[in-house]
Write a structure and sequence with these properties.
Structural class of chain A: alpha/beta
Oligomer: heterodimer
Helix content of chain B: 40-55%
Strand content of chain B: 5-15%
Distance between the termini of chain A: 49 Å
Shape of chain B: globular
Strand order of the largest sheet of chain A: 1-12-7-4-2-3
CATH architecture of the largest domain in chain B: 3-Layer(aba) Sandwich
Number of strands of chain B: 8
Largest sheet of chain A: 6 strands, parallel
Distance between the termini of chain B: 40 Å
Radius of gyration of chain B: 18 Å
Number of helices of chain A: 23
Strand content of chain A: 5-15%
Order of helices and strands of chain B: EHHEHHEHHEHEHHEHHEHEH
Chain lengths: 475, 256
């Protein structure tokens, strides 16, 4: 995305009153309802536990992956260790073809969004059906998620009604319970017809080979249990060492994600369970794909490895002053907002990241709310430095920083000239004069321009000290 | 070496570009308040931009050069502390100089000494003030407080500033909704994304107006420029002030 495209996307997002209105209201409500969900619990204590559990997992990532593989296989699962997105896609497509699967139901998987699995399977002639309400809506609309927890948050109920109306060929009103009913009715047959169910996982417990799914709609449970084959696509960062780590993360995840004390469903999968195939009880096939896709590379970076602590609550999006204005399609790629910027850089595309990182205003609110205390501002700043190093600064930035600001006498001289706008100045300095005061703060039509003082503090004090009060010092 | 226990008798004021060139009155307020506690304030003339704009533009080599120049200007055993009223500058001077120059044989020691001595103005004032009170509560105008991002989150001082306003200056404090939300300043962000900065500011201004306060206080000259400029543009009756100015006014009122 070139700069001008980014600017255009921002404009479109800002013009979209639905987007601004819904997100803005949500962002305000979120802070209040989240605080209510935490109640008297000590957020810093919960954080400490999560950081400890996750840091341990990050330091022992390869070990835990091996242990998880061994334990899950002991319970009858087939574990596949995938390095690249293509390996994941090939594995699933091959499995589907071998088992003659025509229809796949899916739930709860940002990891498959990350690798654009649906597109690939559809190209192979396999029908895939997203069953999370939000995911289904954006699948029908042909959008990518704009939020990790609420993927369709950029759409209003009216827009959803339009999308559903087209799908079922019946004019629907924008009444939410009615829309949910339609979704339920439309999706239900697919759980029974599908030859394969694909889910993600919120946690993968190494010591027991256990998967944990945290959901509200109940569909993930259907996806994981009804079809004869269950494939779970799990990013390596979901690994935790012990079952004792699960409640630590569960204390924060629903509270920070959806302001709930607990979600409606917490599903714990310990190996394959029996299922019905053509009326007969049969053992189910459980495939667990442990996906790397540059997570190991992330783990080897002393700064960015901390992002592997992310539990995907998306609170960094919810509290971001920029996200609430433009949403995840502008401020994000597959993953959005602050954490999305970092994940995109590793999982998807550095080019894309270069644009997204520019949107951060460095207020630090994301880190304050992050249950894993991920230093997102530091990371985004590092990406900015890398970009500047790789692409070089813009001409005017170069002129200001290297030509003026690092030369104090010149810099201050120009500021003084700028304070007397009407005074003639040397032609070679003209472009700096135009940009320097703006550099202290850009011009916006909504704010009075800052004026440079006639006499700066340093000169005022010098005058005084010459008069004898001793507040200035020449060194 | 200076320790926490060193009595603060002489400090260097690190003004930062905004206080030096846009808000010199604020600079004088800072000096006046510190002088009240018997602290001598000097202005090391070699001080220059801390490098925050370079930092946030990813211009690391310029940030390093500025760090070196400032270490030259500020590293002086005579100073018991280096004081600033700009939180963005404080983070750069206190922490980034050391990060940028940690391996520089010429400057690393100086950066370390500066790291140990750099203080926020309001925080230092509260330490010096002890039990002092300059005004009885609710004498003055009603004040609402804007939590500047770097002051609140990076320095962790939001409570200190509120205490200074209420307990020392006797201001009646009314909380605005979303006091911890960014004002949209973010340095060069206003240049790069004015279309995003403007609605962030608009929201902040509406929270300020709705609070019913006469004054909005803050501890950052960048926010002061953004919020003050926004209030001015919409001809608001609410005035934006740095905490240092409110303290200086309370002090003058007490003396008069």
């Amino acid at each position: 995305m070139a700069k001008s495209v980014l600017k255009k996307d921002i404009d479109v997002a800002l013009q979209n009153e639905n987007l601004g209105g819904a997100l803005d209201r949500f962002a305000d409500d979120y802070v209040i309802s989240r605080a209510k969900a935490y109640g008297d619990l000590d957020f810093q204590e919960i954080r400490k536990d999560i950081i400890e559990a996750k840091n341990y997992a990050i330091e022992h990532l390869a070990e835990l992956a091996d242990q998880f593989t061994k334990e899950a296989e002991k319970k009858g699962a087939i574990v596949y260790r995938a390095h690249s997105p293509q390996e994941v896609k090939d594995y699933i497509a091959k499995l589907a073809v071998e088992r003659d699967v025509k229809t796949i139901v899916k739930s709860k998987s940002m990891a498959t969004e990350e690798i654009h699995l649906n597109k690939y399977l559809i190209e192979k002639g396999i029908t895939t059906k997203e069953t999370d309400l939000g995911e289904w809506i954006i699948q029908l609309a042909g959008h990518r998620p704009s939020h990790m927890v609420m993927p369709a948050i950029h759409l209003t109920r009216e827009e959803v009604a339009d999308i559903f109306s087209k799908e079922i060929d019946e004019r629907l009103e924008s009444d939410i319970p009615r829309l949910v009913k339609v979704a339920k009715k439309e999706l239900r047959p697919y759980y029974f017809a599908a030859g394969m169910g694909i889910t993600g996982a919120n946690m993968a417990v190494a010591e027991s080979g256990t998967l944990v799914l945290v959901t509200n709609e109940g569909n993930a449970r259907l996806v994981a249990t009804m079809p004869p084959i269950h494939v779970a696509v799990v990013g390596l960062e979901k690994l935790v060492a012990s079952i004792d780590d699960v409640p630590k993360i569960l204390k924060a995840l629903p509270r920070s994600a959806t302001s709930q004390k607990l979600t409606s469903y917490v599903t714990v999968i310990n190996g394959p369970v029996p299922t019905l195939v053509e009326g007969q009880e049969q053992p189910k096939e459980l495939h667990i794909i442990l996906m790397d896709n540059n997570r190991s590379k992330m783990q080897s970076d002393p700064l960015f490895k901390e992002a592997l602590r992310c539990i995907r609550c998306a609170s960094c999006l919810n509290v971001c002053p920029v996200y609430r204005l433009v949403g995840g399609h502008v401020f994000g790629h597959v993953y959005a907002g602050g954490i999305g910027t970092i994940l995109t850089n590793y999982f998807n595309d550095f080019e894309e990241t270069a644009d997204i990182q520019a949107l951060c205003i460095f207020c630090g609110r994301c880190q304050e709310f992050c249950p894993a205390d991920i230093p997102l501002p530091d990371m985004i700043l590092k990406l900015r430095e890398d970009k500047a190093e790789e692409e070089g600064l813009s001409t005017i930035e170069k002129a200001i920083f290297e030509g003026v600001m690092t030369n104090r006498k010149r810099f201050h001289g120009l500021l003084k000239v700028a304070s007397k706008g009407q005074k003639p100045f040397a032609a070679k300095d003209a472009p700096y004069i135009r940009h320097l005061p703006l550099f202290l703060a850009g011009h916006t039509k909504d704010r009075s321009l800052p004026t440079i003082a006639d006499v700066p503090l340093r000169d005022r004090l010098k005058k005084k000290s010459e008069g004898g009060s001793g507040t200035n010092e020449n060194r | 070496m200076k320790t926490d226990k060193t009595p603060i008798k002489k400090v260097a004021l690190y003004a930062g570009c905004l206080i030096d060139f846009v808000y010199p009155d604020l600079g004088e307020d800072i000096i006046e308040v510190l002088n009240h506690f018997g602290v001598e304030v000097v202005f090391p003339e070699g001080q220059t931009c801390c490098g925050a704009p370079a930092k946030y533009s990813g211009a690391k080599s310029s940030a390093i050069k500025l760090a070196q120049q400032n270490v030259e200007a500020l590293d002086n055993p005579e100073y018991d502390a280096i004081v600033s009223a700009c939180p963005t500058c404080i983070i750069v001077v206190r922490d980034d100089f050391l990060k940028l120059l940690g391996d520089d044989p010429k400057y690393s020691e100086g950066a370390k000494r500066i790291h140990e001595k750099t203080r926020d103005f309001t925080d230092l004032v509260m330490e010096l003030a002890g039990e002092e009170k300059w005004a009885e509560l609710m004498e003055g105008p009603k004040v609402t407080y804007h939590d500047s991002c770097h002051y609140n989150r990076s320095l962790g001082l939001k409570g200190v500033a509120r205490k200074a306003l209420t307990e020392l200056a006797g201001s009646e404090l009314i909380e605005m909704e979303g006091s911890d939300l960014c004002c949209g300043m973010g340095g060069s962000y206003t240049v790069k994304f004015p279309e995003l900065s403007a609605p962030i500011l608009a929201r902040k201004l509406s929270s300020v107006e709705q609070s019913g306060a006469d004054v909005v206080a803050m501890d950052c000259p960048g926010c002061l420029m953004q919020i003050g400029g926004g209030l001015d543009k919409q001809n608001s009756k609410v005035v934006a002030k740095h905490t240092a100015t409110i303290l200086a006014e309370a002090l003058r009122k007490r003396k008069s």
